[in-house]
Amino acid sequence: MKLKAAxxxxxxxxxxxxxxxxxxxxxxxxxxxGKNNYVMIFAHRGDWRNAPAENSLLAYQRCIDEGIDxxxxxxxxxxxxxxxxxxxxxxxxxxxxxxKVCDYTLExxxxxxxxxxxxxxxxxxxxxxxxxxxxxxxxxxxxxDKWTKFxxxxxxxxxxxxxxxxIVLRSSLSSAQFKERFGVLxxxxxxxxxxxxxxxxxxxxxxxxxxxxxxxxxxxxxENDHFEIxxxxxxxxxxxxxxxxxxxxxxxNGGHDDELAMTxxxxxxxxxxxxxxxxxxxxxxIELSNYLQTLNKRNLK
Length: 301
Hints:
The protein is an alpha/beta fold.
């Protein structure tokens, strides 16, 4: 009996660990104030470089398979009130359809196919927000873009699917603007304010975010890498902040982007890391992950 009791007690930590989903781990990381050396990656529209089409289920599956921490999705509303995952307001660039998403019913949109980045017709269909939630449930964080028009609906649907704790929202609104438009978000939702740096007025905006948004994450977007506000990043990190930087396009990071990383990772990804990034929003998440692994920046302690 003593042996059985000892074995049972030894198994309790393992049982508790098994109850935690990957999302629980990711939430702990993103909210840990940068205590862990692990650098998180969010994939812009999924891993579209290695999947048939952007914002497709296969693009998200690639991210899950490769251990990426978050996907970014874009939302549009159909004529009959359903949220679908689509970046553009029109169908022309990314699907076999033409015209505005809002002029089609969901049934009509489901007859279309997604296009590859060079316009080749794929086998992929336009996913709904609900389909993405069920697909990603418990497996990855979901940063929802183009959310401001649909905030209440997003929260209701995510809650119904048990995915509210996976939702990440971002905006550059001041605290007063945010409160006036959206009030208070559910505590499960991770909201990250974005400082779009202009070179003047940046300190005031950052102070507003720090004072009024009690989230240990700060996001910076900047065309010029000499903006003085970037000197505040080490101070924020010392106070327990994780820093979100973009590697998407030059206008978001002073030129230290994914394209540059194809020829010079030190001037791109390493520069972002040295500047303070421990969350990176990327158009090439797998390449970034592979590089970070060489620096031991993707090892969970």
